[in-house]
Amino acid sequence: MSQFGVAHPTVLVAEDSEDTRYVLSLELRHRGCRVITAADGREAVETALVTHPDLILMDLNLPRLDGLAATEQIRAHGELDSIPIIAVTAFDTYGIREAALEAGCQEYLLKPLETGVLERALRNALPGYDFVSDETDASSRRHE
Fold it and tell me: Is the pTM of the predicted complex or chain greater than 0.70?
């Protein structure tokens, strides 16, 4: 049971690359998460408003509305203000990390994501949830 009162936290993956969305979704599902996705920044904001996920992984380079602006719009809604948002990007240009944190992200991760880095970020963002680390643990949990 997570600190949010759910057995499986819901994670919104906002990512424009279909391949990256797929890989992140697989990784998160293997850790016991429910996953919803958005392919652009506007869709991420709209989805967050409707679903109130427990965590958001936000790509910063999104079409229609970039990840920084999407994060700011999500933070502007009081009911979404406490949702942890983790910035995920392939670009580590000067000032982008600071801009992500200023926009409201609590953490900044570089792609490609290493499994251990993702797991640490998940544990930091949702400390009350015991994330499953591999498929064996996941299958044994499903049978409890």
Answer: yes
